[in-house]
Every structure is written in structure tokens, then in C-alpha cells.
Specification:
about 500 residues; alpha/beta; Alkaline Phosphatase, subunit A; two-stranded antiparallel ribbon; LTA synthase family protein
């Protein structure tokens, strides 16, 4: 063995290996600093831009397609979380290179190894501290605790929509479901439960009358598990929350999206409804196209669809695709086409101009306020008010129910903190227009997105056994919602936990 070690060829190999190890360790030091500093920057940037988002949202986003994401967000992420840590890591690499070269030149090998070891320990400490801070910020530890301690919420409270019988009126009503990006009741004036002296959404406040809402126009509770677009759309149409499969990869998510859920779209499809989902962005973002095609066979009219129809030039792209001004124009065309057919229709659409950060201010939006986001919100309210007025003038309106709902609270937290403050209880906007159903109680309700599922069915004149569908409660009844029965905080706590029932019967993960 000694002879082998003394062999010149062996010594050369060992020397090369030592240098390779030395280089790798120094690269690890720089990488650790880069990752750690990146986590620290993300700790500041994520809550500033997104607010208190749940870990589930982050997990779902990184496991699914982010095609179609706004370029501004990705650029901000690069500038805020990557650029500076990367520069620090590169600077450290140059410094370590110079320091080691000097110590090698002066034959300070022991000192060089000690310094390398100290730098390695410091780098690992920075990386761990950064990860720990970020993990606490996004609720990673709570997520793991929920996974290790499953909830029985679904076993105890979930009413499987597929097991119910739905009886439609002889003349089936049409449905227009308008999801409004980041729309809150807080944008209204104080007279209508808002946080402003002068309302940013007077048209929407006028639509959300006591007759058309269950909370005196004061909005609905948005729990964190449903506090982002994809989760909100799914909760309000399936009565279940969106959770990322823990036993599937991205391919499985794409081809088996909540396979056991039975949704509003599937109920209406079975009854012969023609269904369209219209949005001005890429429907592939967060797999929205997969959910609506697999659960209701909706026609997807997104940015790429309209481009193929020649609605705008090939190179046209603003914000997340095209602006809401065009969206409402295309919506009118789709509705007239649907109304010309013999079958009932479900027309669902999603606005986008009020997305964070700052929203998109189109050329027709007036500039009444000093900041852009306030002007965007004001413009959005006027556009929706005009759109609803147009609908009411159409022949199909008498037999059509309109549901309008904000998908979640604004994620532009810097704007919200400045204009609304932390003391105000922010709620999502909603209203149901032209519903034949009558409320059994005038008391204000505490509701979440889950409750829109059975309530929408009742607003279409549909009868079914009981007052519960999925995790939702029919708001026209007097049956308590889960938010009323458990409290929103307790409901959220249970939703964050792992569910065996959900995995086996709704997600159907392998």
C-alpha cells in the first residue's frame, strides 16, 4: 500500500483529486451564500408582493406550468431575489480565489485549509438560516405538521356532489359567471362597507344589494387555502380545495387533475349546457385549462384562442395577454353566439387588469387618482357595470342568472397597506343577479368560496337533496356554513392538513 502511495502517478492523481475537492468546496461555499441570501431576499419580497400566501400555492405553482405568467413578476423576482445574491456569490468567488492564491503562493496550506473550513461553516450557516427564515415565512413547517397529522374534515363534512340527484327546472336557466381578479368590497366607500371616503367601485357596490347578497353587500371571507386564482375557481365550482399531489409528478397533475371531483361544469354538461371559459391570459397557467376541460368539457377561449381567430396581430401582447377592454368585447360576441343556439349555456369569464402589481391601465381608463392601481380598479368597476347593463338589455337575460365574484384579495400588499390599512377586515366581492331563489333568512352570513357551488345551483332553480354540496352550503337556506359552524380560522387549519379522503377520493393520487 505504501509503495502504491509513493508511486509518482498515484501522487499526481491524489494531487488532482485534492485540487478538485478544494475547488468543489469553494464552489459549495459560494453556492451556500447565494442560496442563503436568496432566501433572505425572498423573505422580504414574497410578503411584499403576494401578502400572506399559503405554502400550498407555492408548491402547486412550482409543480405546474407557469407558462403565461406576467413578465413583470418574473423580472421583479430576478431583480429582488436573484440578482443581488448572485453578485455577492460571484464577488465571494473572486475573493476566495485571490485569498487562496496568496496562501498557496506563500505555502500556507494549513492556514488555507482552516480558512476554507471556516468559510464552509459560515456558508452552511447562512444557507440554513436563510432557508429557516423563508420556511417560517411561507408556512413550510405548518405544512409539514399538517401532513404528519391528517385532518378528518372531508370524512366529517364533505357531501360528495356525484352522489346527489339534481332536478332542473323545465326551462333551464343560463349562467353567466364573472370572476373578477383581486376584487374586494374594501374598495367601496364606507357607506357600503368599504375603506374609502370615495368609492373606487360604485357600479359594483350598486350591484351588490341586500337582495343580491347574503352579507348586506359586505363581501365574503377569503381563507388562505382559497386565496389565489386557481384555488378560488376550483373551490367555488367543486366544493373542494386545491391541494398539490404529494405522490405525483407534473405529468400526473396535467393528465389527472382532481379526478374524483364532481363540479358545477360536470353537472351542467350532463344537462346539455354549452360551456365556455373566457380569459385574456394563457389558460395553461396553473393548469386552468385542464381543470375546466376535464370537468365540464368547457371550450377554452384564452389569449392564444383569440389570436388564432385573428382578433389582434400575431405579435400583440400586453399584461398577461390582452386587456379587459378586449375581454368584454369578446364576451359579448361569445354570449350572442351561445344565445343563438337551442341549448342553455354556462359562460364563465375571468378578468385580469386588476392583477398585482399596479394592474394594467388601458388607454380608455380615466386617470382620476394619483396611483395607477386605484385608477385600474375604478376602470374595472365601470367596465363590469357597463357589461352587466348590456346583458340586461339582451333577450336572453330574463332566463339568465349572473354570478359575480372576486377570486381573492389583492396581492398588491404595498398598495393595500397604504390605502386600506391593517385594521380593516378585507373581504372578497360577490353578488348574484336575477336569481329566482328566495332567501330563507335576512341575517348576514359568514361564507367562503365553497358556498358558491351549491348557492349557484339554487340560483339556477336546481333542486337537490339537503343544503350541502361538497364543503359548501346553500346560502339561500338557514343551514350553517362551515365557516359559521367551525369559524374561518379553524376551517383553514383543517384545510391545510393532509387528508386521506381527499387523496383517495378527490385527488385520486397513485
Amino acid at each position: 500500500m505504501k509503495e502504491i502511495l509513493k508511486n509518482k502517478k498515484t501522487q499526481k492523481i491524489l494531487k488532482v483529486l485534492r485540487w478538485v475537492l478544494f475547488i468543489l468546496v469553494n464552489l459549495l461555499i459560494c453556492l451556500g451564500v447565494f442560496i442563503g441570501l436568496g432566501f433572505f431576499e425572498a423573505c422580504k419580497w414574497v410578503p411584499e408582493k403576494f401578502g400572506n400566501i399559503p405554502f400550498e400555492q407555492i408548491l402547486f405553482t412550482v409543480n405546474t406550468s407557469v407558462d403565461g405568467a406576467g413578465e413583470g413578476v418574473m423580472n421583479e423576482f430576478w431583480e429582488a431575489c436573484i440578482q443581488q445574491p448572485l453578485l455577492c456569490a460571484l464577488s465571494l468567488a473572486v475573493f476566495l480565489g485571490c485569498l487562496n492564491a496568496l496562501m498557496f503562493y506563500f505555502k500556507k496550506n494549513i492556514l488555507r485549509r482552516i480558512c476554507t473550513f471556516i468559510f464552509l461553516l459560515c456558508s452552511l450557516a447562512i444557507m440554513w438560516d436563510g432557508f429557516d427564515s423563508f420556511a417560517k415565512q411561507i408556512g413550510f413547517y405548518e405544512y409539514m405538521d399538517g401532513y404528519l397529522n391528517p385532518s378528518t374534515l372531508y370524512e366529517d363534512e364533505y357531501v360528495d356532489p356525484a352522489q346527489l340527484t339534481y332536478v332542473f327546472p323545465e326551462k333551464k336557466r343560463n349562467l353567466i359567471y364573472i370572476y373578477l381578479e383581486s376584487m374586494e368590497t374594501s374598495y367601496g366607500d364606507m357607506q357600503h362597507g368599504g375603506a374609502f371616503q370615495e368609492s373606487l367601485i360604485p357600479e359594483l357596490s350598486k350591484l351588490a344589494t341586500n337582495k343580491n347578497t347574503f352579507t348586506s353587500g359586505n363581501g365574503y371571507t377569503i381563507i388562505p387555502s382559497n386565496g389565489w386564482t386557481a384555488a378560488s375557481l376550483i373551490a367555488s365550482t367543486s366544493g373542494a380545495n386545491l391541494k398539490t399531489p404529494v405522490a405525483q409528478d407534473n405529468t400526473a397533475i396535467e393528465f389527472q387533475f382532481m379526478d374524483g371531483a364532481y363540479t358545477l361544469g360536470e353537472i351542467l354538461e350532463k344537462e346539455g349546457y354549452n360551456q365556455i371559459f373566457l380569459m385574456g391570459s394563457d389558460a395553461g397557467f396553473a393548469q386552468r385549462d385542464l381543470f375546466f376541460t376535464q370537468h365540464g368539457n368547457y371550450e377554452i377561449h384564452d389569449y392564444y384562442y383569440e389570436k388564432e381567430q385573428g382578433k389582434f396581430p400575431e405579435d400583440y401582447r400586453v399584461w398577461w395577454g390582452y386587456e379587459d377592454k378586449k375581454l368584454f368585447e369578446y364576451a359579448k360576441e361569445d354570449l350572442l353566439e351561445l344565445a343563438s343556439q337551442n341549448e342553455p349555456f354556462n359562460f364563465t369569464m375571468l378578468t385580469c387588469d386588476t392583477h398585482f402589481t399596479g394592474g394594467y391601465l388601458c388607454k380608455d381608463c380615466p386617470k382620476e387618482y394619483p396611483d395607477q392601481y386605484s385608477n385600474v380598479i375604478r376602470c374595472s368597476s365601470k367596465q363590469i357595470g357597463d357589461f352587466v347593463k348590456w346583458i340586461k338589455k339582451q333577450d336572453f337575460y330574463d332566463n339568465t342568472t349572473i354570478v359575480i365574484a372576486g377570486d381573492h384579495l389583492t396581492m398588491d400588499d404595498s398598495w393595500a397597506n397604504e390605502h386600506i390599512g391593517n385594521d380593516y377586515e378585507r373581504k372578497g366581492y360577490y353578488t348574484l343577479i336575477n336569481s329566482p331563489a328566495k332567501k330563507q333568512s335576512e341575517e348576514d352570513r359568514t361564507l367562503t368560496a365553497f358556498d358558491f357551488y351549491p348557492t349557484t345551483l339554487t340560483a339556477l332553480g336546481v333542486q337537490y337533496e339537503g343544503d350541502r354540496v361538497g364543503l359548501g352550503t346553500d346560502l339561500y337556506s338557514t343551514t350553517p356554513t362551515l365557516a359559521e359552524k367551525m369559524g374561518p380560522d379553524k376551517l383553514e387549519e383543517e384545510l391545510k392538513r393532509f387528508s386521506i379522503y381527499y387523496q383517495d377520493h378527490i385527488q385520486k393520487a397513485d
